[in-house]
Design a protein that fits this description.
This protein has about 525 residues and is an alpha/beta fold. The protein contains 17 helices and eleven strands. It is globular, with a radius of gyration of 23 Å.
Length: about 525
Protein backbone atom coordinates (compact mmCIF):
# COMPACT_ATOMS: atom_id res chain seq x y z
CA UNK A 1 0.00 0.00 0.00
CA UNK A 2 1.31 3.42 -0.95
CA UNK A 3 1.98 5.94 1.85
CA UNK A 4 1.79 9.74 1.65
CA UNK A 5 2.86 12.54 3.94
CA UNK A 6 0.50 15.52 3.98
CA UNK A 7 1.76 18.77 5.46
CA UNK A 8 -0.85 21.51 5.74
CA UNK A 9 -1.12 25.00 7.14
CA UNK A 10 -3.45 27.99 7.13
CA UNK A 11 -3.41 31.55 8.33
CA UNK A 12 -5.42 34.72 8.67
CA UNK A 13 -4.23 38.30 8.55
CA UNK A 14 -6.52 39.73 11.17
CA UNK A 15 -8.08 36.60 12.68
CA UNK A 16 -10.63 36.91 11.25
CA UNK A 17 -9.21 38.59 8.18
CA UNK A 18 -7.90 37.78 4.71
CA UNK A 19 -7.03 34.10 4.98
CA UNK A 20 -5.65 31.21 3.01
CA UNK A 21 -4.11 27.78 3.22
CA UNK A 22 -1.32 25.68 1.77
CA UNK A 23 -0.83 21.93 1.57
CA UNK A 24 1.85 19.65 0.15
CA UNK A 25 1.72 15.90 -0.50
CA UNK A 26 4.95 13.92 -0.58
CA UNK A 27 5.95 10.28 -0.90
CA UNK A 28 6.55 8.81 2.55
CA UNK A 29 9.40 6.61 1.30
CA UNK A 30 11.34 8.87 -1.04
CA UNK A 31 10.34 12.25 0.36
CA UNK A 32 9.56 13.44 -3.17
CA UNK A 33 7.02 16.26 -3.41
CA UNK A 34 4.09 14.95 -5.44
CA UNK A 35 1.59 17.81 -5.36
CA UNK A 36 0.93 21.24 -3.88
CA UNK A 37 -2.33 23.05 -3.16
CA UNK A 38 -3.10 26.56 -1.97
CA UNK A 39 -6.10 28.88 -2.00
CA UNK A 40 -7.21 32.30 -0.82
CA UNK A 41 -10.32 32.04 1.37
CA UNK A 42 -11.48 35.61 1.70
CA UNK A 43 -12.29 36.57 5.30
CA UNK A 44 -11.81 33.67 7.72
CA UNK A 45 -10.12 32.76 11.00
CA UNK A 46 -6.82 30.96 11.51
CA UNK A 47 -8.53 27.75 12.57
CA UNK A 48 -10.85 27.68 9.59
CA UNK A 49 -7.88 28.24 7.29
CA UNK A 50 -5.95 25.41 8.97
CA UNK A 51 -8.87 23.02 8.59
CA UNK A 52 -9.30 24.02 4.95
CA UNK A 53 -5.60 23.32 4.41
CA UNK A 54 -5.98 19.88 5.95
CA UNK A 55 -9.01 19.13 3.80
CA UNK A 56 -7.21 20.23 0.62
CA UNK A 57 -4.18 18.09 1.49
CA UNK A 58 -6.31 14.99 2.08
CA UNK A 59 -8.26 15.51 -1.14
CA UNK A 60 -5.06 15.97 -3.11
CA UNK A 61 -3.63 12.76 -1.65
CA UNK A 62 -6.88 10.93 -2.44
CA UNK A 63 -6.73 12.10 -6.04
CA UNK A 64 -3.22 10.64 -6.32
CA UNK A 65 -4.15 7.27 -4.81
CA UNK A 66 -7.50 6.57 -3.10
CA UNK A 67 -6.05 3.41 -1.57
CA UNK A 68 -3.07 5.05 0.11
CA UNK A 69 -2.31 5.53 3.77
CA UNK A 70 -1.76 9.12 4.87
CA UNK A 71 0.24 10.64 7.70
CA UNK A 72 -0.73 14.27 8.34
CA UNK A 73 1.80 16.64 9.87
CA UNK A 74 0.65 20.08 11.04
CA UNK A 75 1.87 22.75 13.45
CA UNK A 76 -1.69 23.41 14.66
CA UNK A 77 -2.06 21.61 17.98
CA UNK A 78 -5.77 22.28 17.90
CA UNK A 79 -6.40 20.57 14.55
CA UNK A 80 -4.12 17.62 15.33
CA UNK A 81 -5.69 16.96 18.74
CA UNK A 82 -9.25 17.37 17.46
CA UNK A 83 -8.75 15.18 14.41
CA UNK A 84 -7.02 12.54 16.55
CA UNK A 85 -10.12 12.45 18.73
CA UNK A 86 -8.42 13.66 21.91
CA UNK A 87 -10.06 17.10 21.97
CA UNK A 88 -13.74 17.81 21.45
CA UNK A 89 -14.70 20.03 18.51
CA UNK A 90 -17.03 22.72 19.80
CA UNK A 91 -16.83 25.55 17.30
CA UNK A 92 -19.63 25.43 14.70
CA UNK A 93 -17.28 26.45 11.88
CA UNK A 94 -14.90 23.56 12.61
CA UNK A 95 -17.37 20.70 12.97
CA UNK A 96 -18.42 20.39 9.30
CA UNK A 97 -14.82 20.79 8.10
CA UNK A 98 -13.60 18.09 10.47
CA UNK A 99 -16.44 15.77 9.44
CA UNK A 100 -15.63 16.33 5.78
CA UNK A 101 -11.94 15.62 6.39
CA UNK A 102 -12.84 12.37 8.14
CA UNK A 103 -14.78 11.22 5.07
CA UNK A 104 -11.97 11.62 2.52
CA UNK A 105 -10.24 8.35 3.49
CA UNK A 106 -11.72 5.35 5.31
CA UNK A 107 -11.29 5.29 9.12
CA UNK A 108 -7.87 4.10 10.23
CA UNK A 109 -6.05 5.16 7.08
CA UNK A 110 -5.08 8.64 8.29
CA UNK A 111 -2.83 9.43 11.26
CA UNK A 112 -1.92 12.82 12.71
CA UNK A 113 1.25 14.31 14.16
CA UNK A 114 1.96 17.74 15.59
CA UNK A 115 5.24 19.29 14.41
CA UNK A 116 6.95 22.58 15.33
CA UNK A 117 6.31 25.48 13.02
CA UNK A 118 9.91 25.41 11.86
CA UNK A 119 9.26 21.97 10.32
CA UNK A 120 6.18 23.09 8.41
CA UNK A 121 7.76 25.79 6.29
CA UNK A 122 6.70 24.36 2.92
CA UNK A 123 2.98 24.48 3.67
CA UNK A 124 3.38 27.81 5.44
CA UNK A 125 5.07 29.28 2.36
CA UNK A 126 2.25 28.06 0.14
CA UNK A 127 -0.35 29.64 2.44
CA UNK A 128 1.48 32.96 2.34
CA UNK A 129 1.84 32.80 -1.43
CA UNK A 130 -1.88 32.19 -1.76
CA UNK A 131 -2.75 35.09 0.53
CA UNK A 132 -0.33 37.38 -1.30
CA UNK A 133 -1.82 36.39 -4.63
CA UNK A 134 -5.34 36.97 -3.31
CA UNK A 135 -4.34 40.43 -2.11
CA UNK A 136 -3.33 41.22 -5.70
CA UNK A 137 -6.61 39.83 -7.03
CA UNK A 138 -4.81 36.94 -8.69
CA UNK A 139 -5.07 33.18 -8.56
CA UNK A 140 -2.33 31.25 -6.83
CA UNK A 141 -0.18 29.03 -9.01
CA UNK A 142 2.86 26.92 -8.22
CA UNK A 143 5.03 29.29 -10.22
CA UNK A 144 3.69 32.39 -8.52
CA UNK A 145 6.44 32.86 -5.92
CA UNK A 146 7.06 36.52 -5.22
CA UNK A 147 10.84 36.21 -5.00
CA UNK A 148 11.43 39.94 -5.17
CA UNK A 149 9.05 40.68 -2.33
CA UNK A 150 10.61 37.97 -0.20
CA UNK A 151 14.08 39.35 -0.85
CA UNK A 152 12.90 42.80 0.18
CA UNK A 153 11.41 41.42 3.39
CA UNK A 154 14.65 39.67 4.26
CA UNK A 155 16.71 42.76 3.51
CA UNK A 156 14.40 44.87 5.63
CA UNK A 157 14.69 42.45 8.54
CA UNK A 158 18.47 42.41 8.33
CA UNK A 159 18.57 46.20 8.28
CA UNK A 160 16.40 46.38 11.39
CA UNK A 161 18.67 43.96 13.19
CA UNK A 162 21.79 45.93 12.31
CA UNK A 163 20.13 49.13 13.45
CA UNK A 164 19.11 47.55 16.73
CA UNK A 165 22.56 46.21 17.51
CA UNK A 166 24.10 49.57 16.65
CA UNK A 167 21.67 51.41 18.88
CA UNK A 168 22.29 49.02 21.75
CA UNK A 169 26.08 49.11 21.59
CA UNK A 170 26.90 52.60 20.35
CA UNK A 171 28.04 55.45 22.58
CA UNK A 172 26.09 57.68 20.23
CA UNK A 173 22.86 56.46 21.75
CA UNK A 174 22.79 58.15 25.17
CA UNK A 175 19.12 57.36 25.56
CA UNK A 176 19.84 53.65 25.88
CA UNK A 177 21.34 52.79 29.26
CA UNK A 178 24.96 51.67 29.01
CA UNK A 179 23.92 48.26 30.26
CA UNK A 180 21.60 47.69 27.34
CA UNK A 181 20.84 44.31 28.72
CA UNK A 182 17.67 45.28 30.34
CA UNK A 183 16.92 48.32 28.33
CA UNK A 184 16.94 46.97 24.83
CA UNK A 185 16.26 43.37 25.59
CA UNK A 186 14.24 43.78 28.72
CA UNK A 187 16.19 40.96 30.21
CA UNK A 188 14.49 41.76 33.42
CA UNK A 189 14.06 38.45 35.09
CA UNK A 190 12.42 36.92 32.08
CA UNK A 191 14.31 38.14 29.20
CA UNK A 192 11.19 38.57 27.21
CA UNK A 193 11.10 42.10 27.62
CA UNK A 194 13.97 41.46 25.54
CA UNK A 195 12.51 44.25 23.71
CA UNK A 196 15.55 44.65 21.70
CA UNK A 197 15.56 44.95 17.99
CA UNK A 198 13.24 47.54 16.71
CA UNK A 199 12.60 49.16 20.07
CA UNK A 200 16.26 49.78 20.75
CA UNK A 201 16.63 51.38 17.34
CA UNK A 202 13.54 53.50 17.86
CA UNK A 203 14.73 54.78 21.22
CA UNK A 204 18.10 55.95 19.87
CA UNK A 205 18.23 59.72 19.16
CA UNK A 206 17.81 60.79 15.60
CA UNK A 207 14.77 58.77 14.65
CA UNK A 208 12.13 61.20 15.72
CA UNK A 209 11.62 60.10 19.30
CA UNK A 210 12.86 61.76 22.46
CA UNK A 211 15.44 60.18 24.68
CA UNK A 212 13.95 57.77 27.23
CA UNK A 213 14.57 58.32 30.90
CA UNK A 214 18.05 57.34 32.04
CA UNK A 215 18.55 54.74 34.79
CA UNK A 216 19.15 57.56 37.29
CA UNK A 217 15.71 58.93 36.49
CA UNK A 218 13.94 55.67 37.23
CA UNK A 219 12.81 54.42 40.60
CA UNK A 220 15.58 52.41 42.30
CA UNK A 221 15.17 48.67 41.80
CA UNK A 222 13.98 46.38 44.53
CA UNK A 223 11.20 48.53 45.92
CA UNK A 224 7.88 46.97 46.67
CA UNK A 225 6.08 49.30 44.32
CA UNK A 226 8.34 50.01 41.37
CA UNK A 227 7.37 52.95 39.24
CA UNK A 228 9.20 51.69 36.20
CA UNK A 229 8.36 48.10 35.19
CA UNK A 230 11.11 45.74 36.25
CA UNK A 231 11.79 44.86 32.67
CA UNK A 232 12.72 48.43 31.73
CA UNK A 233 10.96 47.85 28.46
CA UNK A 234 9.78 51.43 28.39
CA UNK A 235 13.32 52.68 28.73
CA UNK A 236 14.55 50.92 25.63
CA UNK A 237 11.46 51.72 23.64
CA UNK A 238 11.52 55.41 24.48
CA UNK A 239 8.19 55.01 26.20
CA UNK A 240 8.54 58.26 28.12
CA UNK A 241 10.25 61.61 27.66
CA UNK A 242 13.48 62.24 29.56
CA UNK A 243 12.90 62.91 33.21
CA UNK A 244 9.25 61.91 33.21
CA UNK A 245 7.58 59.21 35.20
CA UNK A 246 7.54 56.11 33.05
CA UNK A 247 5.08 54.19 35.17
CA UNK A 248 3.25 53.17 32.05
CA UNK A 249 1.78 50.11 33.69
CA UNK A 250 -0.01 52.05 36.42
CA UNK A 251 -1.26 54.87 34.25
CA UNK A 252 -2.17 52.71 31.28
CA UNK A 253 -4.37 50.53 33.44
CA UNK A 254 -6.04 53.54 35.00
CA UNK A 255 -6.53 55.65 31.90
CA UNK A 256 -7.63 52.85 29.59
CA UNK A 257 -9.81 50.91 31.95
CA UNK A 258 -10.86 53.36 34.64
CA UNK A 259 -9.22 54.30 37.90
CA UNK A 260 -7.02 51.87 39.77
CA UNK A 261 -8.65 49.07 41.66
CA UNK A 262 -12.16 49.76 40.30
CA UNK A 263 -11.00 49.06 36.78
CA UNK A 264 -9.13 45.98 37.85
CA UNK A 265 -12.12 44.68 39.75
CA UNK A 266 -14.30 45.06 36.68
CA UNK A 267 -11.72 43.54 34.38
CA UNK A 268 -11.05 40.58 36.63
CA UNK A 269 -14.64 39.95 37.60
CA UNK A 270 -16.04 36.52 36.92
CA UNK A 271 -19.35 35.67 35.36
CA UNK A 272 -19.58 38.58 32.98
CA UNK A 273 -21.62 38.10 29.85
CA UNK A 274 -20.58 38.97 26.38
CA UNK A 275 -21.72 42.50 25.45
CA UNK A 276 -24.11 42.85 22.55
CA UNK A 277 -23.80 46.42 21.34
CA UNK A 278 -21.56 47.52 18.51
CA UNK A 279 -20.15 50.25 20.74
CA UNK A 280 -19.06 47.57 23.17
CA UNK A 281 -17.03 45.56 20.73
CA UNK A 282 -13.99 43.95 22.21
CA UNK A 283 -10.70 42.94 20.65
CA UNK A 284 -11.01 39.40 19.52
CA UNK A 285 -8.61 36.52 19.10
CA UNK A 286 -9.04 32.95 18.09
CA UNK A 287 -9.34 30.22 20.64
CA UNK A 288 -6.19 28.72 19.25
CA UNK A 289 -4.37 31.48 17.38
CA UNK A 290 -1.19 30.16 15.91
CA UNK A 291 2.17 31.25 17.25
CA UNK A 292 3.30 33.99 14.96
CA UNK A 293 6.69 34.80 13.72
CA UNK A 294 7.76 37.95 12.01
CA UNK A 295 7.01 36.20 8.80
CA UNK A 296 4.02 34.84 10.45
CA UNK A 297 1.32 37.31 9.89
CA UNK A 298 0.38 34.94 7.35
CA UNK A 299 -1.53 36.24 4.43
CA UNK A 300 -2.60 34.02 1.71
CA UNK A 301 -4.50 34.46 -1.40
CA UNK A 302 -6.59 32.74 -4.03
CA UNK A 303 -8.47 33.60 -7.08
CA UNK A 304 -11.82 33.09 -5.42
CA UNK A 305 -12.24 35.51 -2.52
CA UNK A 306 -15.54 35.08 -0.78
CA UNK A 307 -18.15 37.61 -1.81
CA UNK A 308 -19.01 40.40 0.55
CA UNK A 309 -22.01 39.43 2.61
CA UNK A 310 -21.10 35.75 2.80
CA UNK A 311 -22.36 33.79 5.80
CA UNK A 312 -18.90 33.63 7.32
CA UNK A 313 -18.30 37.34 6.96
CA UNK A 314 -21.63 38.16 8.55
CA UNK A 315 -20.69 36.08 11.57
CA UNK A 316 -17.54 38.10 12.17
CA UNK A 317 -18.79 41.55 11.31
CA UNK A 318 -20.33 42.76 14.55
CA UNK A 319 -22.23 41.86 17.66
CA UNK A 320 -25.63 43.30 17.06
CA UNK A 321 -27.18 39.87 16.71
CA UNK A 322 -24.65 37.92 18.75
CA UNK A 323 -26.10 35.28 21.09
CA UNK A 324 -25.44 35.32 24.82
CA UNK A 325 -22.52 32.91 25.17
CA UNK A 326 -22.54 32.79 28.96
CA UNK A 327 -19.68 33.46 31.31
CA UNK A 328 -16.23 33.24 29.70
CA UNK A 329 -13.21 31.44 31.07
CA UNK A 330 -11.15 34.30 32.50
CA UNK A 331 -7.41 33.87 32.95
CA UNK A 332 -6.00 36.38 35.42
CA UNK A 333 -2.27 36.63 34.72
CA UNK A 334 0.08 37.48 37.59
CA UNK A 335 3.76 37.92 36.92
CA UNK A 336 5.86 36.69 39.86
CA UNK A 337 7.50 39.14 42.24
CA UNK A 338 11.06 40.38 41.93
CA UNK A 339 14.09 38.11 42.38
CA UNK A 340 17.67 39.26 43.01
CA UNK A 341 18.19 39.15 39.22
CA UNK A 342 15.27 41.43 38.37
CA UNK A 343 16.88 44.78 39.28
CA UNK A 344 20.07 43.65 37.52
CA UNK A 345 18.09 43.02 34.36
CA UNK A 346 19.62 39.68 33.55
CA UNK A 347 18.23 36.87 31.41
CA UNK A 348 16.44 34.54 33.79
CA UNK A 349 14.47 31.79 32.13
CA UNK A 350 13.95 28.07 32.59
CA UNK A 351 17.58 27.10 32.17
CA UNK A 352 19.29 29.26 34.78
CA UNK A 353 19.74 29.20 38.54
CA UNK A 354 16.00 29.27 39.28
CA UNK A 355 16.17 32.10 41.82
CA UNK A 356 13.65 32.59 44.60
CA UNK A 357 11.94 35.88 45.39
CA UNK A 358 13.80 38.71 47.05
CA UNK A 359 12.24 40.36 50.10
CA UNK A 360 10.91 43.07 47.77
CA UNK A 361 9.38 40.34 45.62
CA UNK A 362 7.70 38.71 48.60
CA UNK A 363 6.17 42.03 49.59
CA UNK A 364 4.90 42.48 46.03
CA UNK A 365 3.33 39.01 46.19
CA UNK A 366 1.61 39.88 49.48
CA UNK A 367 0.18 43.06 47.99
CA UNK A 368 -1.07 41.19 44.94
CA UNK A 369 -2.66 38.60 47.23
CA UNK A 370 -4.47 41.29 49.21
CA UNK A 371 -5.80 42.90 46.02
CA UNK A 372 -7.06 39.60 44.65
CA UNK A 373 -8.66 38.73 47.98
CA UNK A 374 -10.57 42.03 47.93
CA UNK A 375 -11.91 41.26 44.48
CA UNK A 376 -12.90 37.75 45.47
CA UNK A 377 -13.31 36.36 41.96
CA UNK A 378 -10.44 33.85 41.65
CA UNK A 379 -11.61 30.23 41.86
CA UNK A 380 -8.35 28.37 41.18
CA UNK A 381 -4.59 29.05 41.20
CA UNK A 382 -2.25 27.55 38.59
CA UNK A 383 1.49 28.27 38.52
CA UNK A 384 4.67 27.68 36.58
CA UNK A 385 6.98 25.09 38.21
CA UNK A 386 9.86 27.56 38.74
CA UNK A 387 10.78 28.68 42.27
CA UNK A 388 9.84 32.35 41.89
CA UNK A 389 6.37 31.58 40.56
CA UNK A 390 5.75 28.81 43.10
CA UNK A 391 6.65 31.13 45.97
CA UNK A 392 4.45 33.92 44.60
CA UNK A 393 1.57 31.50 44.04
CA UNK A 394 1.79 30.05 47.56
CA UNK A 395 1.61 33.53 49.11
CA UNK A 396 -1.46 34.40 47.03
CA UNK A 397 -3.18 31.01 47.39
CA UNK A 398 -2.79 31.07 51.18
CA UNK A 399 -4.57 34.42 51.29
CA UNK A 400 -7.35 33.12 49.00
CA UNK A 401 -7.73 29.78 50.77
CA UNK A 402 -6.94 27.82 47.59
CA UNK A 403 -4.45 25.16 46.54
CA UNK A 404 -1.79 25.65 43.88
CA UNK A 405 -1.75 23.47 40.77
CA UNK A 406 1.55 23.24 38.89
CA UNK A 407 1.44 23.60 35.09
CA UNK A 408 4.68 22.85 33.26
CA UNK A 409 3.53 24.72 30.16
CA UNK A 410 3.60 28.05 32.04
CA UNK A 411 7.38 28.04 32.59
CA UNK A 412 9.56 30.81 31.21
CA UNK A 413 11.50 30.57 27.95
CA UNK A 414 14.87 28.78 28.15
CA UNK A 415 17.57 31.30 27.22
CA UNK A 416 20.40 28.80 26.72
CA UNK A 417 23.90 30.15 27.28
CA UNK A 418 22.50 33.63 27.89
CA UNK A 419 20.99 32.71 31.26
CA UNK A 420 22.30 35.01 33.97
CA UNK A 421 23.86 37.49 31.52
CA UNK A 422 22.85 41.05 30.79
CA UNK A 423 21.89 42.01 27.28
CA UNK A 424 25.16 43.91 26.93
CA UNK A 425 27.16 40.85 27.94
CA UNK A 426 25.31 38.71 25.41
CA UNK A 427 25.96 41.26 22.68
CA UNK A 428 29.65 41.29 23.55
CA UNK A 429 30.05 37.50 23.64
CA UNK A 430 27.58 36.31 20.99
CA UNK A 431 26.95 39.23 18.61
CA UNK A 432 25.98 37.15 15.55
CA UNK A 433 23.68 34.85 17.51
CA UNK A 434 22.00 37.81 19.17
CA UNK A 435 21.45 39.60 15.86
CA UNK A 436 19.83 36.52 14.35
CA UNK A 437 17.66 36.00 17.44
CA UNK A 438 16.42 39.58 17.44
CA UNK A 439 15.32 39.31 13.83
CA UNK A 440 13.60 35.93 13.78
CA UNK A 441 11.27 34.39 16.40
CA UNK A 442 12.25 30.92 15.18
CA UNK A 443 15.91 31.41 16.16
CA UNK A 444 17.05 29.97 19.47
CA UNK A 445 19.50 31.63 21.86
CA UNK A 446 23.10 30.40 21.89
CA UNK A 447 23.49 26.93 23.31
CA UNK A 448 20.17 25.45 22.28
CA UNK A 449 17.62 27.38 24.31
CA UNK A 450 14.01 27.92 23.25
CA UNK A 451 12.87 30.25 20.47
CA UNK A 452 9.95 32.61 20.96
CA UNK A 453 8.05 30.66 18.29
CA UNK A 454 8.51 27.45 20.27
CA UNK A 455 7.45 29.24 23.44
CA UNK A 456 4.31 30.48 21.68
CA UNK A 457 3.39 26.96 20.56
CA UNK A 458 3.77 25.68 24.11
CA UNK A 459 1.77 28.56 25.59
CA UNK A 460 -0.96 28.15 22.98
CA UNK A 461 -1.45 24.48 23.87
CA UNK A 462 -1.39 25.26 27.60
CA UNK A 463 -3.95 28.01 27.16
CA UNK A 464 -6.32 25.73 25.26
CA UNK A 465 -6.08 23.08 27.96
CA UNK A 466 -6.73 25.53 30.79
CA UNK A 467 -9.60 27.29 29.03
CA UNK A 468 -11.28 23.95 28.34
CA UNK A 469 -10.80 22.82 31.94
CA UNK A 470 -12.10 26.06 33.47
CA UNK A 471 -14.97 27.13 31.23
CA UNK A 472 -17.00 29.87 32.89
CA UNK A 473 -14.54 30.23 35.78
CA UNK A 474 -11.87 32.75 36.80
CA UNK A 475 -8.41 31.22 37.18
CA UNK A 476 -5.22 32.89 38.39
CA UNK A 477 -2.11 31.94 36.40
CA UNK A 478 1.14 32.82 38.18
CA UNK A 479 3.78 32.88 35.50
CA UNK A 480 6.48 34.93 33.74
CA UNK A 481 7.02 37.75 31.27
CA UNK A 482 7.14 35.71 28.06
CA UNK A 483 4.08 33.53 28.74
CA UNK A 484 1.96 36.53 29.77
CA UNK A 485 2.99 38.66 26.80
CA UNK A 486 2.43 35.70 24.50
CA UNK A 487 -1.10 35.13 25.81
CA UNK A 488 -1.87 38.82 25.27
CA UNK A 489 -0.35 38.77 21.78
CA UNK A 490 -2.31 35.68 20.76
CA UNK A 491 -5.57 37.10 22.12
CA UNK A 492 -5.06 40.26 20.07
CA UNK A 493 -3.88 38.42 16.95
CA UNK A 494 -0.77 40.61 17.05
CA UNK A 495 2.54 39.82 15.30
CA UNK A 496 5.58 38.47 17.22
CA UNK A 497 7.34 41.83 17.28
CA UNK A 498 4.57 43.09 19.54
CA UNK A 499 6.31 41.20 22.37
CA UNK A 500 9.02 43.84 22.15
CA UNK A 501 6.49 46.66 22.49
CA UNK A 502 4.90 45.60 25.76
CA UNK A 503 6.23 46.26 29.23
CA UNK A 504 5.32 44.02 32.10
CA UNK A 505 6.15 44.86 35.71
CA UNK A 506 6.99 42.40 38.44
CA UNK A 507 3.81 41.34 40.29
CA UNK A 508 1.59 43.05 37.72
CA UNK A 509 -1.89 41.78 36.84
CA UNK A 510 -3.37 41.23 33.40
CA UNK A 511 -6.53 39.40 32.32
CA UNK A 512 -7.99 37.75 29.22
CA UNK A 513 -11.51 36.36 28.85
CA UNK A 514 -12.14 33.45 26.46
CA UNK A 515 -15.66 32.93 25.11
CA UNK A 516 -17.44 29.81 23.95
CA UNK A 517 -17.32 30.96 20.32
CA UNK A 518 -13.52 30.91 20.34
CA UNK A 519 -13.01 34.66 20.67
CA UNK A 520 -10.87 36.36 23.32
CA UNK A 521 -11.10 39.73 25.04
CA UNK A 522 -8.14 41.41 26.73
CA UNK A 523 -9.61 42.91 29.92
CA UNK A 524 -6.49 44.22 31.67
CA UNK A 525 -2.76 44.59 31.08
CA UNK A 526 0.15 45.37 33.43
CA UNK A 527 -1.95 46.75 36.28
CA UNK A 528 0.27 47.63 39.27
CA UNK A 529 -2.15 49.82 41.21
CA UNK A 530 -2.06 47.30 44.07
CA UNK A 531 1.69 47.89 44.51
CA UNK A 532 1.37 51.57 45.33
CA UNK A 533 1.52 52.56 49.02
Amino acid sequence: MREFIVEADGGSRGNPGPAGYGAVVSDAVTGETLAEAAEYLGVATNNVAEYRGLLAGLRTAHALDPGARVHVRMDSKLVVEQMSGRWKIKHPDMKPLAAEANRVFPPGRVTYEWIPRAQNTHADRLANEAMDAGARGEQWSASGDDVEAEALREASGAARTRAAVTAVSSDAAPGVPGDAAAAAAGAADAGTDVTAGERAAESAPGVGERRPASPAEQQPPGSAAPVVPGDAAAVAAGAADAGTDVAAGDRAAESALGAGDRAAESALGAGERRPAGAAEQRPSGLSAPRPSGAAEQRPSGSSAPRPTGSAEQSRTRGWSAAPDLGAPATLVLLRHGETPLTPQKRFSGSGGTDPSLSEAGREQARRAAAALARRGTVQAVVASPLARTQETARIVAARLGLDVTVEEGLRETHFGAWEGLTFGEVHERYPDDLSAWLDDPDVRPTGGGESFAETATRIEATRDKLVAAHAGRTVLLVTHVTPIKTLIRLALGAPPKSLFRMELSAASLSAVAYYADGNASVRLFNDTSHLRP
